[in-house]
Amino acid sequence: MGKLDKNKQLAKTKKIPIRVNPAWYDIIIEYKNSHPDSVLHAATEALEKFAADADATWDQQTLYLKEAELVVDSITEKALETRPNKSSKSATSNIRLAPPSASQIHSVIEPIACAAYFAAPEVPPRRHCIPIIDICHALLPSTCFLREYDHYITHDIASPYAAQPVAQKALAIYTTLDFSLGTTVVRQRLLETIRYLVECLGVAVQKAEAMIPEDRESQGPPATAEPEAAGSQTSRALILQQIMSDVQYTTKTLLALLSRHPGDLRPLFDIRSAMPEDHRLISRLLDYSITVCTHARLYTNECGQLSGMAIAAVLDLLGDPEFVRETTLELFFVAPESSSPRAKALIQNLGVIVPADVKGELGWLDDDAPMLNIVKGLLANLGKPVLLTPIPKSLQFLKKGLISPRYPSNLHHLLFTAIAHFCSQSNLDQQCKVVAFETMAIWLTTTRDLLQESNDKRFGTPFTNGFVDTIRSVLDENASDQVLGYVWNLWDDPVDAIQHKVCIRTAYRNLPVRSIFETLLEVVDIRSQIEDTRETYQMFLGKLLARLMRMDWHRKVKFALLSLLLPKIGTEPFLAAQPDLVWQTLQVHSSLVLAPRASSLLISFLEQRWQETKSAGGRSPGNEDVKQSREEVIEAWTQLWLSSLCRSLTSSSDVLRRNIVGHALQAIFKICPESFWKVVHVLERREVGKWSSPLSEYMITDEAYRMNALIAVIKVGRSLDLIEGDSYANDELPTNPHQISIQTLLTAIHHVDPNLRIDTLGLICESRKSTAEVTRVEIDLLRAFLPLNMNCTSPDFRQKFSGHITKFFTRLRGSLFAQYRNYQSRLAYVQKNTQKPQANIQAAQAESVAIKATIDYAHNFLLWLVEHIAASLYPGSSYQRISTALRLLSLLIKIFGIDRTPAPEGFAKAAEFPFQLPIATVRNVKLLLDCLTNPFDGNRMQAYEVLVAFPCPLPGFEEREEVQRLLWWALESVTSTRAGESDGGAIVFRLIFVKYVVGLGFDLDVEVAKASELVGTNHERGSNVRQESAVFKISASEYSDIIKELDSNSSNAAPDILAFAHKLCNLLQKQINIASTNLLRAAQSHPMHGSLLALQYLFSELDYNSALVKDNLVLWRRTHDQVILLVNRVCATVMDVLSNPSPEGNMPASFQEMEETIEEMIEELEEGDFDGTAIRESGPKHQVILSCCWRAVKEASSLLGVILLRAPLAVSKKDSSAFLDHEDIVDSGNLFRNLLTSIRHRGAFSAVYPSYVSLCARLLSAPQASFSDLPSIWLQDHIANITSSNISVTRRSAGLPLCILAIVSGEPAYRKPLLTATMKRLVKIASEGPADNADQALDLPQVHALNILRTIFMDAKLGTDILPYLSDGLSLAIDGFSSPSWAVRNCSVMLFSTLLQRTFGTKKTKDEHNSMNNLTSREFFTRFPHLLRYLLRELEIAVKQLLMDQQVPRVHPGLYPILTLLSRLHPALMDESDTELTMTSFVPLVMSCASSSIFKVWTTPYGFFLLKTREMTARALVPLIASTNLVPTVIRVLDSCSLTSQNELHGRLLQVQFLLRGHLYNVTSHEVMEDFVTHLPRVIASKLDILMPANPCNITRALMLDIITEFFIDSRWINLHIGDDKQDLIKSIAQKFADVRGAVFNQCAKEMFNGDNNKPGLSVGHYLLRQQMAKIIVLSVWSGLSYLSDILATDAVMKLLGDDDYEVRLVTLELLNKYMVAGPVTRYDFYTSTYYPPDRYDAFHSISLQDETVVLNTHN
Predict the structure, then answer these.
(1) How do residues 1414-1433 score in pLDDT, each as one tens digit?
(2) Could you tell me which residues belong to the region Disordered (predicted)?
C-alpha cells in the first residue's frame, strides 16, 4: 500500500502564483475606453494592478487580492453582515466607501474575481476571491459565477481551464462547497459535477492501470520486484504521484458531494426510480472505487480509504436500509448461494464485479488487506439504520472467521469482527495497521454514540432501542480484553502513527474520535448506566487500575493509561493502590524517555487532588473560616508531595533533578503558587520544625545537593514571576519570608558544580515578561558570573548559557527601549509644562535622572562586556573561552545590532535606542580574523559569521592593498599541511570573496608567483603530464580573451568573480601537477585540500539566480566544467594510495627508490623555496602521503557535492538556465561510485558518502525521468557487483554498503520501491549458503549482503521503513552463526548485535537485562510474529544437539543468540490470556538446558565464543513464565534438584534465582508474593541438604546460599511491594522465614568458625562458599536477625575481618562500609517505610565460638 501521508502534498506545495489571463486586463481596458468619464473604484484599481502584473509572485498577488478584499469588505454594513466571521479590523473601520457602479461590478470586478477564483492553483488565493464574489453577488445578483463554473466542469479544450490538473480542479470544487454562493451553484449543477468528476476519476484510474506491469500473474507486487523493475517505477514516480493526487482529491470531492447532498441525490440514485444514465454513473463510480481498493499496492493509502468511503456513500443512497444492507453483504461478505435476489439483480444490472482478490481470502489475509479500506468505508459512511438492521440467520459467509465466535446480529457486529481480524493480523503492513486501529477507534466511537442515543429516550430510534443487548454480546469480556490487548501491545510501537491511533485524540468527519482505550472505557461506562451495573463498572476500573499498578514503572503505556483512568475514578483509589505514587512517579524521572510521561501523570494527579481537596476543605462559612480553610487545604495538599519532591530534588542523580525541574516543578507551582515558598523554606531549612510529617528530618536526601535544589526551585519561581527582580536581600537569612539572600546566589555562582552555576544564571536571566526591568542587582550578579564561567568544558553548560544570555539581552533591550521612551517623555513634560507647579516639574526631573542613571548603568555593563569579550580572544585562549566569547558577541550583534538596534516586537519601528555599542571596530576585526585560524571548526565558523555581519568593507581593511595582503596571508594557511590551518585560510578566502570580490568588485590576486611557476618546472614532469596540463590549464592568452569577453558583455562585478574563481582553479591545478609527479613533495609542501575547500566555499556562496551569474552563463558553465575536471584529476592522482589493500602503510612504487635518497631530496629542497625542516618534521612519509590523499578526496568530493546540489540541472545544456547536463551527472555519479567501491581507507570513503547521498536524493526527486532513473541503474549495478566473485574489498565491505544506503535512503518518503526491492534481494543473497569451493581470499556475496543489511539497519533516517525486515534480519543472523565460513559467522555476529539495538533500542542503563532496556514477550512477538515459530524450531534443534551426548557436549551455534534474544524479554501481564502468542512451548526446551554440562565455553569446533550457557538459559526462562505461575514453577524446579548431577543442580538453581529476580522485582502481584511467602520456605527447608558438607560441590552450595541470602534473609524485594497489606506480608515473612534463617545462620556460623573448615583452598570454589557464608553472618548480625548480644556480634564480625581468605575479609568490609554509609537499615519486624537504627536487646542466648555451636532465639 502506498505510504503517502494525509495531505502531504498540500503541506509541501510551493506557493505557485495565479496564471494571469491577458483577457482580464483587456476587460479593464475595454471598460475604461467605453466609460472614459467613470472613476474606477478602489476595488477595481486593485484588480487592475493584479491583472496588469502578469509576472507577480504569489505574495504580490496575495497583496493585490487582499487589498481588493478589504476594500470590498468595507463597502456596506450589509456586506459585513454576510461575513460574520470576518475580523473586527475591517468591521470597526470608520471608512465606508461607496459601492462601485453596477457597470463596474457587472463588467470588471465580478468577472475577474470569478475567473481568478477558478484559475487559482491553491486554496489561499481562492479564499481572498470569495468575499469579492459574495459581495458583488449581494449587490448585483447575476449568473457570472455559475457561467464560470459551467466552463470549469467541462472537458472542452477551448476552456481557459482545460490545462489545469484534475487534482486542482477537484480541490477547487471542494473549496466551492465552503461558501453559500458556491454551495448554491454546485447544488444547481450537482449531477453534472458528479458526472464530470467520475469521468476524471475514470481517466486517472485508466492511467494508473496502464502503469501496472503486463505480466501480472507471474510478477508479484511492484514493490517486491528486482531493483531494475523498481527502477522503472522510480523513473515514473512523479507521473504516478500526479495520478495519485488526481485520484485522491477527485474521490475526496465526490465523497463530499455524496455526503453533503443525500436529499438531492437519493431520488437520483434510488435504483427503483433512477434513469439508465444514472445507472451507468453509479456503475462507473462503484467500478472505479472498487478498482482502487483492489490494487492497494499501486494506489496510496489515502486513495484506498477514500474509495472505500465512496463505495459506502453510494451504497447508502441506493434505497431503504434493508436493501442497502443486502447489497452490501452481497457485494463483499456472503457466498453466492446466500444471495439476496433483489440485491443480486441490482448488482447484475449495474455490472459491478468485486474481484476475488478483494473479498476472497487474499483480500483478508494479504499484507496490504484490500478489504480493510472497504470495511472502514462501510463503517464510516453507511447510515446507522443500515448498520443496525438485523442480518438473517441463514447466510453463508465467504470469510468463516467473521461468524466466530458467534453469528453477527447486524452489520455493526459484523464490522467489529472484521476490524478485530485486521488488528490481530500479524503480517499486516505498517500503514495498514494504522488504518486498522483507526477503524477500531471509529467503531468504538460509533458504538458510544449509539449507546448514548439508546440511553437518551429523546433521541432513541427503533434501531437503537435494542442496541444494548447487541453490544452486550459483541463487546463481552473476551472482546474487551482483546481490545485492551491492542493498547497494551502497540502503545510503544515504533511506528508513531500506530501509537497515535491507540492513544491520541484525532479528528475524523468532525467527530471526536478518542483513543481506543478511553473510548472503550466510555462504552463500558454508558453500558453500565443503562444496565444499572455501576458496581460491576467500578470493579472493572479497579481491576484495570490494579493491573496497571503492577506493570513495570518503565513502561510508557503505564503512565498514559493511568492518566486516562484518573478522571474516571479519582485520586483516592490511586493512593489506596499505590500509597507512594508521588515518590515512584518522581523516581521515574531518572529516565529521559519516560520523564515527560511520568510528569504528565503526576501533574494530572496533583491537579485533580487539589480540586478534590479544595472541594472537601472549603465548606466553612465566613471569610475568616474560608481563609483558614484554604490554609488547611494547601497544607493537606502539600503534605502529599512535599517530602517526595524535596528528597528527589536533593538526590545525587543529576538526570533526576534536571527532569523534575524541567517537566514537573513549574506545573506544580502553577496549581498552587503558595506551595512555592513552602518548598523554598524547606530547602533553606527555615521552617522545617513546622512540618508534622514523621519524615521531616529526611526531606533532604543529600546535603551536598541542597543548594542545587534551592536554586532550581527559585529559578522556576522566577520564571512564573513568583519572585520579582527586586526580591533579593543582602542579609544571609532575610527576615522577609518572601525574599532570597544575595549571598546564597553568590555562593552558587562560585560553586564547583557547573549545573548549579548554570541554574543560577538561569535564575538571574529568567523572567516571564520579555520587557521586565533589569535591576542593578541582576546586572551585578551577571557581571560577577561571566568572568568565572567563560571557560566551562561542558557543552550542555555552554548551550544553556547561550539560551539564558539571549533571554537576558532581549529583556535588557526591551527594558532600555521602554526606559528611554519614559526618559524622553519626562524631558518633554518638563519642557512643555514650565507653567506647572514646581513640585511636579522637580518630580519629573528627578524621575528622568533616575531613569538616565539606570540606562547608563546598563550601558556601562554592555561596554564592559564588549571589552571582556575582546580580552577573552587573546592568542592561546582555550576553545571554550573563545567559543563563549564569540557566542556572546554574536548575540550582542543580533540583539543590539551594529549600526542600529532593532526594535523589539510591540515597539514602533522608528523607536529610538539610547546608545549604540562599538562592536565593529578595527581592533575587533583583527581579533576575529585571528580567530579564523583557530584550530577548532566551531570557533572558526562563529568568527566568520560575526565578520559577515560587519559592514562592508571591514574596518581597517578598506583599501585593495590591505585586502590583498590579507589574502596572501590566508594563502599561507591554505597551503598548510595542517587541516585546521588550511580550513582557516579557506574561510578567509570565503570572507574576502563575499565581502570584497562580490560585495565591492575587487580584483585580487590569489597567489604571488611568476607565470612560469604556475605550470611547474618541465624537468620534473613527463610528456603525459604536459599533455594533461594542456587540457586542464588555461593559457595566458585564453585568460586574456576571457577577461576581454567579460568586460565587454557583463557588469563590472562579474569579471572579478570569475577571475577570482579561475585564479583559485589555477592554484589547484598547480598543486595537482606537482602531486602527479611527486606525491611526497605535494603532501609536504603543496597540499590540495586547502584549495579545494576554498573553491567549495566559493561555490556555496554563489547565487545562481543573480544577474552576475545569469549574464555570464557560458563562462560560468566553462568554470563549472573546469572545476569538475580538476576534481576528477585530484581523485585520479591519489587513488593509487587510497585503493591499496593496506592504505595505512602504502607508499607508491615510484617512491620506493626515494627511501635510499631521501636525504639528498631534502637537501635539494632546502636549497630551493621549500622548508626542509618542515619536511623532516612532518612525520613518516607514508603517513604524510596518506593524510594528504584522503583529505584531498574528502574536500574534492565535498566540492563536487556542492556543485551537484546547487547548480541548475537539465537534460541538455541547450536549456538557457542549466549549468550541468545528463552527461555531467552520470560522470559525477560514476566518480562517487568508483571512490566508494575502490577506496580502502575508511575515513576517505566515509567522507565521500554525504555528497553521494545528496546527489541521489536530488536525482530521485528530479522531474526528468532521465535523471530519476540513474540511481536505480546504479543500484542495479551495485547489486550485480555483490554476486560477482572477483571483488575483494576491505573489512565490512568498505564503501559498498554506503553506495547502496545512499540510494535507498534518498528515496521520497511517500514510496520506497528501491528499498523494498533491495532488502528482498539482499535477504535472498545472504540466505544462500556459500559454495563449498568458495575462495576465502575473496569476499563472499553473503558477506557483502550481510554487511549491507547491517548498514541499512543501522541508519536512523530509514526509521520505521526497515521494521518489516527485522524478522528476516534476525533469522539471517542466527542462521549465519552456523555457517562454515568464518567471514559469514563474523558478519552474522555484527548483524545480530545491530538488530538487538534496533529492536530494543539503545541501552538506558548499563545493565542490558534491566526492564528499561527490554520488551515484554507479548510486545516483541506482536511486532515480529514470524520469529515465534522460527525461534521455537531453531531452539528445538539446538537443545537436541546439546543434550545428545553429555560425555562429548556440542553446543549448537544458534543456541546462544536465541537465548540472548529471549533473555532480553521480560514477563508480560497478559501472556496467559493469549493463545497465539503464548510462550509455553519454549519452557520445556529452555528448562532442559539446565542439565547441560557446559557452564562456560570459550571455543567450539566452529570457533564460536560462548559464555555462561546455563546462566543465559536461566535468564531466557524468565519471560517464558507468567507471574501467576512463578511459585509452582519454582517449586517444580526445586523438587527436581538432586545431588546426583552437579551440572543439572547448578542449572536448576540458576533458573530459580533468575526467576525470582525477574518476577519479584518487577510485575509480581500481592497474591504471588503471598504465595511465595507461604509455600517457598517449606520447599527451601527441604532442600537445605544442598548446603550441607555432604554436597561435595562448593559452587552449588554457594549458589544456594546466594538465593537464600537475597530472597529469604535480605528480602529487599518486599520494599517494592505496594498496598495496605504490606505490613501483613512483612509479619508473615518474619514468622515463616524464621526457621530457614535460623538453620542457615547456624550452618554458616558453624562452618565459618570451625577450625578444620576454616582452612582456605580446600577445594575448587571454596572461597565462593565462605564468601556467601560471611555475607549471611554480617547481614544477620547487622539487621538483628541473629539476636546476638553486642559482644558476640562484634566478636563474630572481628573474626570475619581477620579471616585467612582475602575474599571473606573483602566482602565483610564492603558490607560494613555499605551499611555504615547508608545509615540505619531496615528492620523487617517493623514498619518498613520508616527507618530506625538497630535496637539493642538485653536478653540473648549465647554463641560459643570456641565450641562451634550457635543457638538462636526463634520467634514464638
Answers:
(1) 777 777 887 787 888 888 89
(2) 212-231
CA dihedral 1707, 1710, 1713, 1714 (to 10 degrees): -110
What is the full DSSP assignment across 508-567?
ETTEEE--HHHHHHHHHHHHHHHHT-HHHHHHHHHHHHHHHHHS-TT-HHHHHHHHHHHH
Residues 18 and 110 in one domain: yes
Per-residue pLDDT tens for 1125-1143?
999 999 888 888 777 765 5
H-helix or E-strand spanning residue 1046:
helix 1036-1049
| Domain identity same for 1505 and 1635 | no
Domain of 642, in residue numbers: 580-613+637-744
Instruction: Quote the CA–CA distance of 987 and 1101 in Å, as a whole number.
Output: 12
* Same-domain check for residues 1616 and 1522: no
Q: Is the pTM of this model over 0.70?
A: yes
Among 353-362, 434-443, 1370-1379, the least confident range: 353-362
Phi and psi at residue 1569, in whole multiples of 5°?
A: -65, -40
- Residues contacting 578, CB < 8 A, separation 6+: 549, 584, 1618, 1619
Considering the domain boundaries, does residue 1494 fall inside one? yes
The closest alpha carbon to 1189, from 1252, 1259, 1119, 1140, belongs to 1140
Neighbours of 1193 (CB within 10 A): 29
User: Do 814 and 925 sit in the same domain of this protein?
Assistant: yes
- pLDDT the model gives residue 251: 94
Instruction: Tell me how many degrees the CA angle 843-846-852 measures, rounded to the nearest 5.
Output: 140
Closest of 172, 173, 168, 167 to residue 207, by C-alpha: 167
- Determine the average pLDDT of the residues in 1278-1284: 81
Provide the number of structural domains found in the chain.
5
pLDDT in tens, 1328-1357: 877 766 666 567 888 888 989 988 888 888
Evaluate whether 1304 touches 1352 at the Cβ level (below 8 Å). Answer: yes
Question: Has residue 904 been placed in a domain?
Answer: yes
SS3 of residue 1744 by DSSP: strand
- The sign of the torsion formed by the CA atoms of 1048, 1051, 1053, 1057 equals negative
Which one, of 415, 270, 421, 388, lies nearest residue 333 by Cα? 415
Of 188-197, 424-433, 1594-1603, the one with minimum mean pLDDT is: 424-433
- Can you read off the three cell numbers belonging to residue 982? 588550511
**Shared-domain flag, residues 25 and 85:** yes
DSSP 836: S
Lowest mean pLDDT among 544-553, 823-832, 1505-1514: 1505-1514
Q: Which residues pair with 1209 in a beta bridge?
A: 1220
CA-CA distance, 1482 to 1472, in Å (whole number)? 14
Question: With contact defined as beta carbons under 8 Å apart, do 1551 and 1514 qualify?
Answer: yes
How far apart are the C-alpha atoms of 1665 and 1109, rounded to whole Å?
84
Q: In the listed set 153, 188, 223, which residue is the last one of a domain according to the structure?
A: 188
Distance separating alpha carbons of residues 540 and 32, to the nearest angstrom:
79
**Percent of the chain whose pLDDT exceeds 70:** 79
The model's confidence at residue 1292, banded by pLDDT at 50, 70 and 90, is low
Q: How many CA atoms lie within 13 A of 1691 on its CB side?
A: 12
Residue 502 lies in a domain: no
Q: How wide is the angle at C-alpha 1610 spanned by C-alphas 1605 and 1616, nearest 5°?
A: 125
Mean pLDDT of 1599-1611: 89
Kind plus residue range of the DSSP H or E element containing 511: strand 511-513
* Same-domain pairing of 174 and 25: yes
Please enumerate in sequence order all residues whose Cβ is within 8 A of that of 638, keeping only pairs 6 or more positions apart, or say none: 672, 675, 678
Angle at 21 between CA 16 and CA 24, to 5 degrees: 125
Contact 1087, 982 (CB under 8 A): yes
My answer on whether 32 and 163 are in the same domain is yes
Compute CA 1026 distance to the chain's CA centroid, rounded to the nearest angstrom: 55
* Total length of the chain: 1756
Q: Are 1618 and 579 in contact (CB under 8 A)?
A: yes
In this structure, the answer to whether residues 845 and 899 fall within a common structural domain is yes
Strands 1415-1416 and 740-741: unpaired
Q: Which helix (H) or strand (E) holds 728?
A: strand 728-729
